[in-house]
Amino acid sequence: MIRPLPLPTPLPLDVKLMNTVSVLLGLAFAVMVLALALGWLMRQSLFNLSAIHVQGDLSHNNAVTLRANVAHNLTGNFFTVDLARARATFEAVPWVRRAVVQREFPSRLKVVLQEHQAIAYWGQEGDARLVNNFGEVFEANQGDLEAEDLPLLNGPQGQAPLVLRAYQLLAPMFEEIDTVLERLQLTGQGSWRAQLDSGAVIELGNGSMDELSTRTRRFIATLTQVSSRYGRELESADLRYGNGYAIKLRGVTTGSPADKDDKKDKSKR
Question: What does the pLDDT look like over 63-108, one tens digit per residue?
């Protein structure tokens, strides 16, 4: 006959509690020892920052000068250096748009820079900043510009991306008639004003990009014909009419046929 094995006697509650406390104390001690060991290791001179490797866009900045100007603002070693602060320090350097900072074991930092690509001035003439190809306004030494014949854009604060997009839409249109769009402004009332390299000022009106493009296309399609008829250069133009435009040639004032019809109708009233 097989007898069942006796069930183990449960441990008393105080014994269970002592065992649990012992395990927890052992774990806490192990964690403390590990933390002390890591702290000691992290303080070793092996991990002191010894080099900063700078690469990427360096058209307007020198890697040696960058390291010299930025290194004294960096504190800590390979483990403790604040990468966000390091990135902000590099991005505060003129012409630097973006910096990516990474650790390279055991004692180096790798920095990849992206510089601003200036494609226009922004603001009032004589007090202009620069606009990059993302429509971002930035400040830098304009004496470092590779191209000096940049267009001048202007508009309300925060509207640089919109004004840049409008310029990129309109500039190729004027190139079709061998004219350069030198200035483009968005007024506080939402109206657009352009100036050509000849000095001619064009009131483009307001509206969407499609409306702006349509009015400009209509104007350019007939401008050469009108100006050649009188043998005069364009002085100003007003495209804010619903079905035409008015222009002023140097020494001659005229308008589109549709505009003239409008004026005749108004004179009869």
Answer: 888 888 888 888 888 888 999 999 999 999 999 999 999 999 988 9
Instruction: Give the contacts of 74 (CB within 8 A, at least 6 positions apart).
Output: 49, 52, 81, 85, 86, 89, 109
Query: Given this model, what pLDDT does residue 121 score?
Result: 96
Q: How far is Cα 7 from Cα 60, in angstroms, rounded to an integer?
A: 82
Concatenating the DSSP letter of every residue in 205-228 gives ESS-HHHHHHHHHHHHHHHHHHHH
- Kindly give the parts of the chain with pLDDT less than 70: 1-9, 11, 15, 33, 37-45, 253-269
Query: Can you say how many angstroms the Cα of residue 82 is from the centroid of all Cα atoms in its chain?
Result: 24
Amino acid at 239: L
Query: What is the Cα 255 distance to its own chain's centre?
Result: 41
Number of H helices, E strands in the chain: 6, 13
Distances (CA, A) of 144 to 58, 93, 116, 131, 243: 13, 14, 12, 14, 46
Strands 252-255 and 201-205: unpaired
Could you tell me the domains of the chain?
45-115 (3.10.20.310), 118-268 (3.40.50.11690)
**Residues facing 237 on adjacent strands:** 202, 247
The three-class DSSP label of residue 193 is strand
For the chain, the farthest-separated pair of C-alpha atoms sits apart, in whole angstroms, at 130
- 158 SS3 class: coil
> Per residue in 113-146, pLDDT tens?
999 999 999 999 888 899 999 999 999 988 888 8
